[in-house]
Amino acid sequence: xxxKKKVRTRSWLQRLVYRWLRVTARLVAISLYRVRVFxxxxxxxxxxxxVCANHQGFFDPVLVGLCCERQLSFLAKQSLFRFxxxxxxxxxxxxxxxxxGTGLDGLKETLKRxxxxxxxxxxxxxxxxxxxxxxxxxxxxxxxxxxxRVPIVPIVFDGSxxxxxxxxxxxxxxxxxxxxxxxxTPAEIASLSDDELLERLQTEMHTMFAEVQASRSFALxxxxxDEQKAQLA
Length: 233
Known about the structure:
Blueprint: H1 12-33, E1 36-38, E2 49-53, H2 60-66, E3 72-77, H3 85-91, E4 94-97, H4 104-115, E5 119-122, H5 140-148, E6 152-158, H6 160-163, E7 177-180, H7 186-191, H8 194-221, H9 225-232
Parallel strand pairs: 1-7, 2-5, 2-6, 3-4, 3-5
Antiparallel strand pairs: 6-7
Helix pairs in contact: 1-2
């Protein structure tokens, strides 16, 4: 007899807070960052998924979350789970990761949420970009995808680096474009070696990144020069 899959449930308060934050983030994104999203139809309609995104700046987890109609979990440093952020970050489905240790607790919780049909966001580069480009992906996501038996959804964006890079204290306005790619299915994942899967995701993300760079560049060229200069200063 097939075991019934457990689906993650959330309190009405958590759902309300998450929904309110997503709506607020979308309003800010549209008004200050002219966010455009391509490929929304590629989000899986059911089941869990491992969402793999490039990492340009501080906005990135929120940026991915506002593009998705379903709730999103994401990995966060253990140090952030302290007062006053602890309650707030838990409401946003963060998964604590102890970078100084083995990280096994974070891995177990990630797999648990994937098996409960959650979307879990990770950044395969491992750190925020120094120049806005996509760096070499680390292979850690491969074991998670294989053990979780879920599709990998690639997502890339351009403009987050210009708006709030890792060394900048406060954000600035700008233009951000996002593209959600075609999922790599569990069957495809199983058919590829680790090296092949790593190269497949790397290639797809680079191709998508070139597309959003081009679309964002086109959008910037349509903005009046004085307004563009004010946004990107």
